[in-house]
Amino acid sequence: MSVVDTIDELAIARRFYAEEVAAVAGLDVPAIIEAFAIVPRERFLGPGPWLLCSADGGQTQFKYRRTPDAHPRHVLHNVPVAIDQERTLNNGQPSLLATWMQWLEIRPGDRIVHIGCGTGYFSAILSAIAGPTGSVTAIEVDPVLAARARENLVGYPRVVVIQGDATTLSAPADVIMVNAGATHAQPAWLDALEEGGRLLLPLTFDAIPNTPGKGVVLKITRRGETFAATFGPMVAIYPCTAARDAEMNAALQRGFMQWKHGQVKSIRTDSHSVADSCWAHRDGFCLSTMEP
What we know:
Helices cover 28% and strands 27% of the residues. By secondary structure, it is an alpha/beta fold. A hairpin with a 2-residue loop joins strand 10 (213-223) and strand 11. It has a domain at 93-288: Rossmann fold.
């Protein structure tokens, strides 16, 4: 097989992969589909052969299948891929993250913060969506993963990798995407949002410590000095340790047991007593049934 044939074959595989992700995620945003077609996933996974995962977050037992060789086509499927099997860390299921990206309504030129960037693959996708006038700040608490992300993202000048716990943000953002389970949004995340800015985080409670938490994806939108809130699909994901609180964990567990999450309409950050409108209350971050 010639080099040209190999390049053509890989280009076709990347395009089919993007279409597969689009079909599963129900994508109708061309920029997202194109991003999955042009960003080389294998670059962010380490050397092959790779371990494909048959289950993502929400299960404590992961099943892996080793690819027969190191051809990139093997990871161009809508499945998680191990980046550190010993710690059960995966490059997540593409269609899941694509759904989140579509819900965030990313626009050309947006300033994006990606918290929990892992080895950088989805940060590269976000950068491609935001285009040449946009930017991505990719934050990863794990120093080994942050170093890998920094190396992998060489050649992506609009992406800056920061190793840290993301409890503080130094610049305004149009979009913040959190890639780990939180009980609440950090005040710095809310403060960083510009008018109309969108924050998406998996809002989860941990029934068993150090296992994937369960909950729903939460979208927060700044409207002046208030924050509109909408619950999305269910999710199970490993925790963002810097954004967890025992009081809110218990409040979320009680709220999800009632399963009336469609009532949540806003986030209240003001100091107030618990009221009937408080779906899950914590001082400084209350999920409220009140309009923003």
